[in-house]
Write a structure and sequence with these properties.
The protein is an alpha+beta fold. It is built from five helices and six strands; from the N terminus they run ααββαββββαα. It has a six-stranded mixed sheet with strand order 2-1-6-5-4-3. 19% of the residues are buried.
Length: 144
């Protein structure tokens, strides 16, 4: 396992524990985070990242964020995974995504997630997971 992937594993564990401060401890003060690259403007800086995380946290429960594959090159980590959780009203939301994280030392300075927000919106509206989403989820997560 690479050094960058280990940092992401720590972020995932902190997020699953709903520990926003610990998640932020892995981000640089000047982070630029594209939560949904090309669909939404990025958040810039830790204060904006905190607001985004706190907004997400309020409606994300039973979080099972999984990484299926990853690769590191230099100061960059590429991942393929799924954000899988339950909303406050019990709906399952599972959105496959690809992500790219840039590092300065052990801190994340850039984060770009490529995700179809329409898939999440359909699931939040109560639609079942589609067959193509189910097939993407039915894979073993990457080794810790």
């Amino acid at each position: 396992m690479g050094r960058r992937y280990e940092v992401l594993r720590q972020v995932i564990e902190a997020w699953q524990a709903k520990d926003v401060d610990r998640v932020l401890s892995h981000m640089a003060d000047d982070i630029v985070w594209h939560y949904a690259a090309a669909a939404m403007p990025p958040v810039r800086g830790k204060a904006a990242a905190r607001k985004l995380l706190e907004r997400f946290q309020s409606d994300m429960h039973a979080i099972e964020w999984r990484i299926f594959s990853h690769s590191e090159t230099g100061d960059r980590l590429f991942v393929e995974g799924v954000d899988d959780y339950r909303t406050s009203d019990g709906k399952r939301v599972a959105t496959p995504y690809a992500g790219v994280l840039d590092f300065r030392g052990d801190l994340i300075v850039g984060w770009r997630d490529y995700v179809d927000l329409g898939v999440a919106a359909q699931q939040k509206a109560g639609e079942p997971l589609s067959a193509q989403v189910e097939s993407l989820l039915d894979r073993a997560p990457a080794a810790r």
